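Quick start: read one record
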Amino acid sequence: MIVCLNKQDEKTVNYSQDRYTEIMTEVSAYLKKIGYDPKKIPFIPISGWVGDNMVEKSANLPWYKGPTLKDALDLIVPPVRPTEKPLRLPL
């Protein structure tokens, strides 16, 4: 799971690290309640409108040291499929 915190050109966010931390804390608490480990989930601040942190690091977010969205997607390990078992399809 990858959580992207999209700026969407909202003027109140303005690439703020404080707002990123606030959202990350709230989302982490929710994910923990439903059974996920937030420490294993990358939180990536992106802007889909401008392309910040989607493919390349953004100069607008110098405080963010994590992976870009593309890098995080490349790090996902697909689950092992039981190919030696018979095919079963739910109806």
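The first strand starts at residue 3 and ends at 6.
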